[in-house]
Specification:
heterodimer; A: 336 residues; alpha/beta; Aminopeptidase; Elongation Factor Tu (Ef-tu), domain 3; 2 domains; nine-stranded mixed β-sheet; six-stranded antiparallel β-sheet; 24% helix; B: 341 residues; alpha+beta; globular
Chain lengths: 336, 341
């Protein structure tokens, strides 16, 4: 799963431009799927028939990542840009980026500190520099509306950590693709969603499938660094899978949360159980779809989400995989 | 020319001010390809000397600094490395770092989660500039210690129109210009001795170049450093246009005859060049070297660069070649038989 995960992180899939990620996932899923569908929004839905008649679960992960769009091209060949998704603007000065489908290398500008404190770059003043020396030269490489992703190869560091851009969604995708290879008692729709970081893509998939339950697999910001006061810490990297009661956009279904925690416990998976996570997830779109889909979520604790250097401890990723497997193996629609 | 390959090799080195010794040894190996004598000074500058064979030939010192900006570990807390307050930290959050400790350790400059930022305009607190090496306190203390140097992880991005973006272009690009000039003049009958210096500690005031120059007692010195190209947030006249080529600086710290010789050679040989004016201390090694020993006639060449002191320092390769061509023009301009004044 680790190689699959890293390969998915290497692909660029800014919200609305998930094609490369979807193509890779489709190819990976094909040998194990009983059925595949794609909706007009671009969500990829992969069906796997269960071995018993225990109802249908929708398990989702998002394919997209935070990034930027080219807004316009300046006369000097630099690119004005806008962020896609909420990302910490402090990471922008001098960040490395990849522009468009060809992943042209570029950097974000930074006013040199010698020019004085008052001139130090504010996000609105920054531009992307692809080296082009005129508007005409830049127009041969890109266009307004083109997408821009963070650049940088995945790396392993420290005591079992992995760093990669886009890992918040791709970890879930890799876990789903791993579970898809296994037989489960319930019917499962593995759903790879679009536009999660701008909070909109998954609703049509939920509407189409109307399963008995929904399970979202993603990453959450642990906020466990020494500069974060104890009361603001969410969870701990290295502490295992995170099965919370709620995120900032929705309260999860209590019975499902309980089932997920119990299944994990019985399977011997290390878990953390914070009450509420910061940030919204696809769970809100599922919970509010149609007459409402009971939804829970399992997260990997992670750091620096929506930056070029997101990181996760691999033992936590494996804990999420095992917790999700335990949930699906124990799921029965009538029990909720 | 293999300008790009040389720059890639030099930008792969990590040499924060005061921690240049390993890089200096590698630069000595590069100097040794065209210089008969090489050594590292006690302060960590790399020196390569090539004699022309004439008795009492003048000695020209070519200087570019080897060190790069960086940070220093102050203490270790919960496995995270705090940094000594001081240098500008604007570009730090979310960058890949390299800790030059007992081992080379990969790290990430931490980012405050956006949901914990109360006010977007609030300046960052020093406490949140920590380097995350993904380790427990125990392991972190085995790998790193207060005082260790921290630099941006080397990378080398080729942008459009012959541009390179890399964390240590300041001033490795100028070291490349010197290496190219050494190559261009190798095997030619010169009437001048050359001392190539990749100096240490420029970013903390220039003692590396000062002490190297003292040891060499050159007659002339040409220092090369990056300068501010016009860029986002830097307009003319604070910045120079990138397409001007190599810049030559006029000012009281710089020897007028040597400076005007460089202008004349650039004109004669059609080397693209621009002019900069510096009314006092140039803020470069030219100002250190001029005061070495009994004094040295010094000139300053500049390479226009964008995003100085960030991990995205961006330069145009052809400007490095223009600087090399001007150095070659200067070295070959000494007439045969000229003797020290």
């Amino acid at each position: 799963m680790r190689e699959l995960f890293l390969n998915l992180c290497r692909l660029n899939g800014v919200s609305g431009f998930e094609d490369a990620v979807r193509d890779a996932i489709r190819a990976e899923a094909l040998p194990y799927a009983d059925r595949m569908e794609e909706d007009p929004a671009g969500n990829l839905m992969v069906f796997k028939k269960g071995t018993e008649n225990r109802g249908t679960v929708m398990v989702s992960a998002h394919m997209d990542e935070a990034g930027f769009l080219v807004k316009s091209i300046h006369a000097d060949g630099t690119l004005r840009f806008v962020p896609v998704g909420s990302l910490p603007d402090r990471v922008l000065p001098a960040a490395r980026v990849a522009v468009g489908e060809k992943a042209l290398p570029g950097v974000i500008s930074m006013t040199p500190p010698h020019m004085g404190r008052d001139k130090i770059s504010k996000p609105g003043d920054l531009v992307i520099d692809i080296g082009a020396e005129s508007r005409e030269a830049a127009e041969k490489r890109t266009y307004p509306g083109d997408f821009v992703a963070y650049a940088g190869e995945p790396a392993a560091f420290g005591e079992g950590f992995l760093k990669a851009k886009a890992l918040d969604g791709r970890l879930g995708c890799a876990i789903l693709l791993t579970l898809l290879r296994e037989e489960m008692p319930c019917d499962i729709w593995y759903v790879f969603t679009v536009q999660a970081v701008i909070g909109s893509g998954a609703m049509t998939a939920a509407h189409r499938l109307q399963p008995d339950a929904g399970l979202v697999i993603a990453c959450t910001e642990a906020a466990d660094q020494p500069f974060v006061p104890q009361v603001q810490r969410t969870c701990t990297c290295g502490g295992g899978a995170v099965i919370p009661d709620a995120d900032s956009s929705t309260l999860y279904h209590p019975a499902l949360v309980c089932a997920a925690r119990m299944a994990a416990e019985r399977a011997g998976v290390r878990c953390q159980e914070p009450q509420m996570l910061p940030g919204a997830t696809d769970a809100r779109l599922f919970a509010q779809s149609g007459s409402g889909i009971p939804t829970a979520a399992i997260f990997a604790p992670a750091r620096y989400l929506h930056t070029p250097v997101s990181c996760v401890k691999w033992s936590d990723a494996e804990a999420v995989e095992r917790a999700a497997r335990a949930f699906l193996q124990n799921f029965a629609a009538e029990n909720r | 020319m293999h300008t790009k390959e040389l720059l890639e090799r030099l930008c792969a080195m990590s040499a924060r001010s005061g921690r240049e010794f390993e890089a200096a040894q590698e630069v000595c190996r590069l100097f040794a390809e065209t210089c008969g004598e090489t050594y590292v000074t006690p302060m960590g500058s790399a020196v390569g000397i090539r004699r022309c064979g004439l008795e009492q030939a003048p000695l020209v010192l070519l200087d570019a600094h080897l060190d790069q900006i960086g940070y220093m570990v102050s203490r270790i807390e919960d496995g995270f490395l705090h940094l000594v307050p001081g240098y500008d930290r604007t570009p730090l959050p979310g960058k890949e770092m390299l800790v030059l400790g007992r081992e080379r350790v990969y790290g990430i400059a931490a980012v405050l989660p956006p949901h914990l930022r109360k006010n977007p305009d609030q300046p960052d607190d020093y406490e949140q500039f920590v380097v995350d090496i993904g380790c427990s306190q125990e392991r972190a203390c085995e790998l790193a210690a207060p005082g260790d140097a921290v630099v941006y992880l080397p990378h080398f991005d080729e942008l459009d129109c012959g541009h390179i973006a890399s964390p240590s272009v300041d001033d490795r690009a100028a070291v490349v210009a010197i290496l190219l000039a050494l190559e261009q003049t190798a095997g030619r009958e010169l009437c001048v001795d050359i001392a190539a210096v990749a100096s240490s500690r420029e970013e903390i005031g220039g003692p590396g170049a000062l002490t190297a120059a003292y040891g060499l007692s050159p007659d002339y010195a040409v220092a090369l450093d990056v300068t501010f190209g016009i860029q986002r947030g830097v307009d003319a006249p604070d910045g120079v246009p990138e397409d001007c080529g190599v810049t030559i600086t006029r000012g009281p710290h710089l020897n007028r005859r040597l400076t005007e010789t460089l202008f004349r050679l650039a004109e004669e040989q059609h080397i693209p060049h621009g002019v900069e004016v510096e009314p006092g201390n140039t803020g470069t090694n030219a100002s250190s070297i001029r005061a070495a020993g009994n004094g040295v006639a010094a000139a300053l060449l500049g390479l226009p660069m964008r995003y100085m002191h960030s991990p995205a320092e961006t330069i145009k390769l052809s400007n490095i070649e223009a600087a090399a061509n001007l150095l070659t023009a200067y070295l070959t301009s000494f007439p045969g038989g000229e003797r020290r004044a």
